[in-house]
Amino acid sequence: MEKKIFLSEKDMPRQWYNIQADLPNPLPPPLNPATGEPITPDMLSPILPMNLIEQEVSTERWIDIPEEVLARLVMYRPSPLCRAYSLERFLETPAHIYYKNEGVSPAGSHKPNTAIAQAYYNKKAGVKRITTETGAGQWGSALSFACNQFGLEVKVYMVRVSYNQKPYRRIMMETWGGKCVPSPSPDTSVGRKYLEENPDHPGSLGIAISEAIEDCVTSKDTKYSLGSVLNHVLMHQTIIGLEAEKQLAMAGEYPDIVIGCAGGGSNFAGISFPFVRDKIYGKEIRIIGVEPTSCPTLTKGPYVYDFGDTAGTTPLLPMYSIGHGFVPAPIHAGGLRYHGMAPLVSRLLADGLIEAKAYNQLDTFGAGITFARTEGFIPAPETNHAIACAIEEAKKAKEEGKEKVILMNWSGHGIIDLPSYDAYMTGKLVDYAMPDEEILKLVKDLEKFPKPRLA
Ligand SMILES: *Cc1c(COP(=O)(O)O)cnc(C)c1O
Predict the structure, then answer these.
(1) Which residues line ligand 1 (CB under 6 A)?
(2) Could you tell me the pTM of the whole model?
(3) For 331-390, how does the pLDDT look when each residue is reduced to its tens digit (9 = 90+)?
(4) In whole angstroms, what is the distance from residue 118 CA to residue 112 CA?
C-alpha cells in the first residue's frame, strides 16, 4: 500500500512519444490565412529554430531526449505518482485514484518539461535570446528558469493587468535572470501604438504575442517560444504519461480513466498520449480533457480553422475553437482561457478517441479545497478542473460498485494563486457559463476559412 510510487532516475524515459506516428487520420496542415495554402516548414523559420520545426512536423514515433535535457529534467523528475488514499476514503469510493504530481518542478507546474527542451534546442541552433508572452506568468517563469539553465537571455511580455496584480511570478522570472516587461510596452512599435491610444492600457494576451513576435523578428539571434498548443510542445510533455505508465505498472495497475485539465492542451496531452496510443491499438480506456464552462472550447466549439492568437496574426490552425475574438469573463479565476485547443488534441476528439467535459468554477474550487483538506497539497486553479472530474468519476464508481483505476495529472500547485482561493472562500466568485449565442457569434467569423477534413 505505497502512497508514492517513485521511479528511479535511471528508469526515467529517454525518449518522447510522438503521437503523429499513430494517428488514424493525419493532422490537417496549418494554412496561410491570405492564400488558404498550407504553411511550409521554412515559413516558420523566422520565429522558431529549424530543429524544433523538424520536431513539429515529424512522424517518427520515438524521439531521443538529449542528455543535456535529461540532466535538467532530473532536477525534479521522475515526478512522484501518488495514490490519493485520503481522498478515496473521504469519498468512500472503491475507485483507486492516482495523481501525477507535476507541482514538484522549480516553477511549480508541468511547464518546465517543454521550457527546458525548447531552451536546449534554441541554444543548439545558435540562438542567444528568446522572446515570449505570458498571461498570469506561469509560462514566463518556466521559460526564465530554463533559459537560465542554458545561458540564454529571455524577454517576457506580460499582460499589464497581471503584471500589476500578480507580482510573484514576475519576481520568479527576475530571480532566474529573465527580463519581464508589462505589455503593451514602449519597446515595440505595436506596444507604442496601444500606449498612445491609452497610456494605462490593461493589455491582452493577443497584444503580448504581437509584441513578442515583433521583438523576435526585428532582433538579432532571437527566436520566439510558445508554452502550449504546438505539436513539439505536447510531445515534450509526454514524459509525464510515460513515467506514469511505468509507475502504475510497478503498482500492478492500468488506468480505466485518464484525466487532465485542458487550456492549450499540453499537460493533458502529456499524461494521456501514451494511453491514447494503447486505445488506438484496441485497449478499452476512457480519456477525458476537462475545461471551464466559461471557455468551453472542446465541449461547445466547432472543429474549424482559426487563428492561433487573439490578434489574428498567426497561421490558421485546425482545431476546436470558440473564436479568436473570445474575451475571458472578468469573473473567471480558474485559468484555461485559451480560445482554441492544440491541433493534436482537437484531432483526437474529432476522431472519437478522447472525451471532453466542462465544469463551473465554483465546482472546481470546491474540488480543489476537498483535495487540499484530504491530500494536503493546494492545487493550481487549472488543476482543480481535473480534480473535479476525478471526484465525479470516483463517485460514479461508488454508485456502480466498481473498483476503477483513475489517473489524473496534477498539473501544478496553487501556492502563487492564493488570491483566487480567497475570492472563492469569501464568496466573491460566481459561476459563468458561456452562452451558445455568444459562441455562434464568435465563430461566424470563421466561415470564410476552409473546413478541416474530418476523415
Ligand atoms: C499553464 C497551465 C495549465 C494549462 O495549460 P495546458 O497547455 O493546457 O497544459 C494547466 N495547469 C497548470 C498548473 C498550468 O500552469
Answers:
(1) 109, 111, 138, 228, 261-268, 336, 380, 382-383, 411-412
(2) 0.97
(3) 788 889 899 999 999 999 999 999 999 999 999 999 999 999 999 999 999 999 999 999
(4) 9
In this structure, which topology does domain 4-11+63-108+232-448 adopt according to CATH?
Rossmann fold (3.40.50)
Domain with residues 128-220, CATH architecture: 3-Layer(aba) Sandwich (3.40)
**DSSP letter string, 93-131:** -S-EEEEEEGGGSTTSBSTHHHHHHHHHHHHHTT--EEE
Amino acid at 140: G
Q: Which long-range contacts (CB under 8 A, 24 or more apart) does 438-441 make?
A: 439/296, 439/300, 439/301, 439/322, 439/323, 441/323
Dig out the grid coordinates for 421 from the structure.
Answer: 482561493
The pLDDT value given to residue 104 = 98
All 3 cell numbers of residue 226?
510558445
Mutate to test the pocket of ligand 1, among 109, 226, 295, 349 (most ligand atoms within 8 A of CB): 109
Torsion of CA 313, 316, 317, 320, to 10 degrees: 90
Length of the chain, please?
A: 455
Q: Where in the chain is the domain with CATH 3.40.50.1100?
A: 4-11+63-108+232-448, 128-220
pLDDT in tens, 211-257: 999 999 999 999 999 999 999 999 999 999 999 999 999 999 999 99
Say if CB 132 and CB 227 are below 8 A apart.
yes
Strand partners, 409: 100
The tens digit of pLDDT for each residue in 3-34 reads: 999 999 999 999 999 999 999 999 999 999 99
Could you give the CA distance from residue 409 to residue 110 in angstroms, rounded to a whole number? 9
Predicted confidence band of residue 102 (pLDDT cuts 50, 70, 90): very high
| Burial of 14 from C-beta contacts in 10 A (0-12 / 13-18 / 19+) | middle
Å from CA of 240 to ligand 1 middle? 13
CA dist 168 → 92, 162, 251, 368 (Å): 38, 10, 38, 21
